[in-house]
Predict the 3D structure of the following.
Amino acid sequence: MNNSADKKVLIEKINKLRHEKNAIILAHYYQLPELQDIADFVGDSLALARKARETDASILVMCGVNFMAQTAKILCPDKKVLIPDINATCSLADSCRAEDLRKWKEQHPDYMVVSYVNTSAEVKALTDIVVTSSNAIKIINQLPKDKKILFGPDHNLGDYINTLTGRNMQLWNGACHVHSRFSLEELIKLKKEHPQAKVLAHPECKRVLLELSDFIGSTEALLNYVKTSSEYEFIVLTESGILHKMTQACPDKLFVAVPPETSANIVDGKPMTCHCNECEYMRLNNLQKLYKCLENETNEVDVAPELVAQALKPIEKMLSMS
Ligand code: CIZ
């Protein structure tokens, strides 16, 4: 897009189309600011799932990654679910294949499976309860203390839940490539530069970073924290897309994004121009792709009906327990 006039035209076209087609645009906090700004609703995956279920729109455009669009389709199989870029996948969801989870379950027949929402529909179909980072602690605390649990795919989140709940869940060895690459060195440096700042971290970060944090929570919880805090400066350890909403909500406060480790900051042999830690898959979606997919109703995300039936149960269970 060349200039702001082109952008304005595109926004007008999208607004016209969404009205004509009775479409709703949902966006995750990790999306580009332009997508967050045009969306009917912005939220974390729990809020997006709830919104998808309650809307009476005929088309749902999910500005997020594939598992979020799949979750919406599972909750609303009669609606058309579109995603601006079909290649917007999730490294964490990809770290747990259904066939590998099936083998893990066979090795632990007396365990129940709790899966993080960042999973494919096939993995959800093998799961007893889905959780998100907003509700994981609340849900695990409702399960009987002697219940043996397999938790996946995020090892850091599982480790954090074990610490907080006193459980001994067996953990899958997966990680989000964005949250696991935050630089400890840079965090220590930033803490020295901003001694008054509160450090806010997502539980998908490594334990060593969580130990240096003042508050740990989901994107929604981090956003609520900055809105209600009387503090002025925050160092943020989650995908830097959240800074857009934080800045909009609290324009007078200062938000500092922690960069990734230097090696992760090199893309195609060149250093990244931005020092923020961004998910390249989340950022595959943009305004032009949103327009194209809405105009042509392309990039439809479908889930086979038998899979919908199986994957719906653990999501419903989560919604009823959270
Ligand atoms: O649950 C979500 O939306 C993710 C991926 C992160 C968070 O904490 O909101």
